Amino acid sequence: MQDRLIVFELCLRRDAVEAPQALPPGVELALVDEIGCAGAGAATAVWVDSARNIMTADLPLGGAWSSPTLLATPPGAPAPLFVMDSHGDAGVVVATSDGDILAYRRVAGAVSWGPEEVIAVAPSGSHLVLSGAAMGEAGDFAVTWQTYGVRCS
User: Positive or negative, the Cα torsion across 1, 59, 45, 112?
Assistant: First the structure.
């Protein structure tokens, strides 16, 4: 029997509260990383599956979770950071084992995610660690990271 995660993070609207929903079958409990809610009550989940793929699924207000969708297969990516504004614009950021920081965006109401964007590449002899991500109400996307292993003189 496959584990199913019950989402207790409720998406609130002024006139309604959605009941907790289970994620789609096949989603592994320990690997669900982020869940975000838009102002209208729709939710998006982002996680890394057992094959190290970044996956997403959507829950429209009053509906059921979509089937899991492959977002990306970056090399050695740990847990991604996920951000969403109240309109439903969304972004996923991940640091890869190759030293890159990659981002993916989806405009509110869109079915598919945009192309991979390289945010930063680690200087030779160093590596990057994600610190945080945020999204403004206009869909602007901000990412912070730290660089380790480079000597400054």
Answer: positive
Q: Which residues, including other chains, have CB under 8 Å from residue 63's CB and lie 6 or more apart?
A: none
Could you tell me which residues come within 8 angstroms of residue 152 by beta carbon, excluding any fewer than 6 positions away?
A: none
Contacts of 124 (CB under 8 A, 6+ apart): none
Render pLDDT for 73-83 as a digit per residue (tens, 0 to 9).
887 767 788 99
Give the whole-angstrom CA distance, residue 99 versus residue 27. 28
DSSP string, 76-122: T--SPEEEE-TT--EEEEEE-TTSEEEEEEE-TT-SS----EEEEEP
pTM: 0.75
* Amino acid letter, 108: A
Both tokens assigned to 142:
């901000």
